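Journal club prep, shared notes

We agreed each person brings one worked example of a sequence with its structure written out as tokens. Mine is Nucleoid-associated protein BN8_06578. I'm keeping it raw so we can talk through how to read the token line rather than staring at a rendered picture. Sequence first:
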Amino acid sequence: MFNMMDMFGKMKEVQARMKEAQESLSTISETGEAGAGLVRVTVNGLKHVQKIELDADLIKPEEREMLQDLIVAATNKAMDNVETKAREHLRQATEGLLPNIPGLDLGGLMQ
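Then the structure, token by token:
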């Protein structure tokens, strides 16, 4: 026999595990290269740029650090902005598909 309370209990457990997994994403990182290593970008599991390294031959040495910081900030701002727009787009696209059940938060599925 179908037990609604068991289903909600399992959903809460899945939600808690998803939250833990999402919180640990900041500890994961990956580096990509372009231009045969002239540009290297490191991002974390939250899709935030952590570091940008530019080969010294590409820019003036006195501008290098400032340029790297500005690129990181602008890239992260764009990623945050598009994430907000994407969530709103998905919310509108799925509006009315699921019943409005108090306590049921499926917002984490749209990340």
